[in-house]
Amino acid sequence: MDGNRRRGLVIGGTAAVAILAVLFAVVGAGRVVDALLASDPWLVAATFGLALCWLIAWSLMLRTVLGSLDVDLPVATSFLVYAGAVFANNVTPFGQAGGEPVTAALIAKVSGSRYETGLVGIASVDVLNVVPSISLVFLGVGAYAATAAIGERLEVAVAVAVALIASIATAIALGWRYRRELVDRLPAAVGGLLGRLRRFDAAAVETALATRLRNFFEDIERVGTRPRRLAAAVGLSLAGWTLQATALAVAFAAVGSPIAPEVALFAVPLAYVAGATPLPGGLGGIEAAFVALLVPTTGVAAATVTAAVLVFRGAVYWLPTLIGGISVSALGIDAMR
């Protein structure tokens, strides 16, 4: 782990702990603990089981996308690789943005494919996950609006999520529209900049970057030519989101406060917007976002909401982090490289 990554992890981890400490202080740590101790162990186990099913669904999604790139992974290997991807996202700042390079290296190592191919595979999974998530947000909010008034907090959360996703989609579209210009001009600009430092050979950097960019865009084009695989991947993405929403609903049932299914449908993707913060896997920020969304929309006490969110996050954050950490360690990939 280099110094910059170590500092980033320490700062992000400290911020996450601080946010969680403030959250517990506001809602009452004692009441949260009491709610957790009184939770139904079978429903807690069911929450973890649903999280495992979500992990399987999205690992199959990754396998499907990689198949369109002629990278064939066994089902068990794809599960371990995707768990490793979640681990990398959860221990690096900015979530997927920080974890994708590690995941690409992991895919390349286990499959013998190019690094760029692995990067396209995991990036495609992240992009394809956007469509079902937005659909579930609007479906859930629409169903909720039919029975209750939409509060200002929910309106702001939806607006922020849509704006963020629209910005990402616009950046991706512009990158694709001007991909040839990027391949022609970016390597020379980067090579010239790094060439001013004695440790870099400008010509070598330019050649290597041009090759990687060319391979990257060629692989993206290959993904787009397999519509059936893309449709299957989107279906698996939708299944994964639904399993997570179900896990959240079961977590609330575990602490004795069932919630409407439509609330879980929009809460999960909306709260994950906080994962774009410089926190390891959004830790702290996502929990706070869940509480901020769910207290006014469910009418459940803040301490009980926090307890349910902790059960849910234990299933979808800590369980995959444990499995993925073991996977990444066994395969010899440094997640903080």
Summarize the structure.
The chain has 337 residues and is mainly α.
Description:
With about 325 residues, the chain is mainly alpha-helical. It has one domain. The protein is about 80% helix and about 0% strand. The chain contains 14 helices and no strands. Helix 3 packs across helix 4, helix 3 runs antiparallel to helix 11 and helix 6 packs across helix 10.
Note the topology.
Elements: H1 3-27, H2 29-37, H3 41-68, H4 75-91, H5 96-111, H6 115-128, H7 130-145, H8 152-177, H9 179-194, H10 202-224, H11 227-254, H12 261-271, H13 285-298, H14 302-331
Helix pairs in contact: 2-14, 3-4, 3-6, 3-11, 3-14, 4-5, 4-14, 5-6, 6-10, 7-11, 7-12, 9-10, 11-12, 11-14, 12-13, 13-14
* Count of individual helical segments: 14
Global shape = globular
Structural class of the helices, strands and pairings? mainly alpha
What is the helix/strand order?
A: HHHHHHHHHHHHHH
Radius of gyration of CA atoms, rounded to a whole number = 21 Å
Largest sheet: none
Helix content: over 70%
State which percent range the strand residues make up. Answer: under 5%
Q: Whole-Å distance between the termini?
A: 5 Å
Low-confidence stretches: none
Count of β-strands: 0
- Structural domain tally: 1
Tell me, rounded to a whole number, the average pLDDT.
79
